[in-house]
Amino acid sequence: xxxxxxxxxxxxxxxxxxxxxxxxxxxxxxxxxxxxxxxxxxxxxxxxxxxxxxxxxxxxxxxxxxxxxxxxxxxxxxxxxxxxxxxxxxxxxxxxxxxxxxxxxxxxxxxxxxxxxxxxxxxxxxxxxxxxxxxxxxxxxxxxxxxxxxxxxxxxxxxxxxxxxxxxxxxxxxxxxxxxxxxxxxxxxxxxxxxxxxxxxxxxxxxxxxxxxxxxxxxxxxxxxxxxxxxxxxxxxxxxxxxxxxxxxxxxxxxxxxxxxxxxxxxxxxxxxxxxxxxxxxxxxxxxxxxx
Amino acid sequence: xxxxxxxxxxxxxxxxxxxxxxxxxxxxxxxxxxxxxxxxxxxxxxxxxxxxxxxxxxxxxxxxxxxxxxxxxxxxxxxxxxxxxxxxxxxxxxxxxxxxxxxxxxxxxxxxxxxxxxxxxxxxxxxxxxxxxxxxxxxxxxxxxxxxxxxxxxxxxxxxxxxxxxxxxxxxxxxxxxxxxxxxxxxxxxxxxxxxxxxxxxxxxxxxxxxxxxxxxxxxxxxxxxxxxxxxxxxxxxxxxxxxxxxxxxxxxxxxxxxxxxxxxxxxxxxxxxxxx
Lengths: 292, 277
Ligand SMILES: Nc1nc2c(ncn2[C@@H]2O[C@H](COP(=O)(O)OP(=O)(O)OP(=O)(O)O)[C@@H](O)[C@H]2O)c(=O)[nH]1
Ligand SMILES: Nc1nc2c(ncn2[C@@H]2O[C@H](COP(=O)(O)OP(=O)(O)OP(=O)(O)O)[C@@H](O)[C@H]2O)c(=O)[nH]1
Ligand SMILES: [Mg+2]
Ligand SMILES: [Mg+2]
Description:
Shape of chain A: elongated
Distance between the termini of chain B: 24 Å
Bound molecules: guanosine-5'-triphosphate, magnesium ion
Structural class of chain A: alpha/beta
Number of helices of chain A: 11
Oligomer: heterodimer
Number of strands of chain B: 8
Strand content of chain A: 5-15%
Strand order of the largest sheet of chain B: 3-2-4-1-5-6-7-8
Largest sheet of chain A: 8 strands, mixed
Largest sheet of chain B: 8 strands, mixed
């Protein structure tokens, strides 16, 4: 584990009193390696390492901790603070419906998470409406309708429609007439480098004017997390993040990269395929997982 | 050219960063760079003209020659597609079925994902697009039963190729991995020797976890080939070096889009070149 590796590289420090230059370099090398193996982006790791160096240098080695434990403590604290606070709140709009738009890459878990979120709102006594705005993927509409049926939540869809803008305009009317106070819009997976699909998403957002745009990201994402998050953040604008497939054994370093780039809160984590498998985000657990 | 001259550290750092950003892995990247530094020191960089070109040759040779996914032996040739959730299995199967049809083979698809919402409907649409027959049961039924029926049907009809779609599953879920073992046993029961190809579908956007996926799926059902999807994005899929080195599993196919024609054979040299783009 990282604690053991840091112990090994720092054990000659015991009783020296202060953490000095070469001591910290050896420790930082181990920390950087641990973070890279956890899929934290190279540049994010570099910046993070620099911040840890500043925090650790010259710090008194507490008698209660070994120097290795001291560095782990500093790293863990910094990771937690970067990952943001536990904040699963989606603020409701003063003028219903509260519109939530789900965006992200192919297969990240948007459709499944749309249903999971709708179920949570229903449990809180809301009247959510799911909107099937993926007109591209085979049987995407069927998928959302099937999920909606499982949890007794209506799904607005227009199978014959070729235009997502028409679908969302009609959905907004349906939400009003059906007195739905929450509307969750599932969109098609798209690449951050597909100009026409990113432009389409922008237009959909303009029509929807959502209270919340949620970026759905796969916990297994590697170094590319930075590129993806940056484009969605800059081109579309996001308000929150959901990390899916956290029930696997991916270390989840993408969480740190996405946080660093977007500065937006991670609101939920997906912890399974079933529709009740969505949990609020807890930074300290994720920090330990990333550190290994 | 390079006769025992050291490479400047800035060049080496840039190369190491490029490799890490390509998801090759931090340790693999530093091993590659150390090897490069040593070669330069001994003057063994040869006539390659640049450190970068030498590195490209080294990386290509790590991957070996490109291998194709080609049916062989008695029919039906059975391909079992496996992988984690959302990797691109169903789409890759659809593309593959279409390619085989174009090559003159008859194809039957087994709707082995009986769990996920609209998984069967999704495969059926790909069946229509690729003119492949689809064998399916009710949603929620035993996937092994579907697989058995599909292979039986292919044998009866003289179909050339059977491609089996399975539900996405995280390799950490032992009951699901046990289910996959059973599916594999049933293939062999329906046709001794089947499946002839176990295709692990891997999302190029995944990081180091893809190696774990390959290890566990290989341990569970024996993986013979990898289909690396979503290479039309900006992720490089560098994890395939570790998969080849550690498990000797070759990438045979790459996915470069959502369309039926967006499937290509894996060309190691093109792949390596793209790492540096
Ligand atoms: N294990 C696990 N699987 C998940 C989770 N969230 C989603 N999935 C699975 O991941 C796969 C992809 O989920 P989808 O909801 O279809 O993803 P998507 O983003 O809508 O995909 P596209 O519409 O094609 O872009 C499915 O097999 C889901 O069951 C999760 O938290 N854990
Ligand atoms: N851009 C791009 N998208 C792809 C590629 N391959 C698959 N996809 C998309 O990825 C998403 C998931 O594909 P699926 O075929 O449903 O993946 P799967 O592995 O069968 O998913 P599960 O059955 O839910 O585990 C879909 O939106 C596909 O269109 C590819 O090579 N490039
Ligand atoms: Mg979807
Ligand atoms: Mg599938």
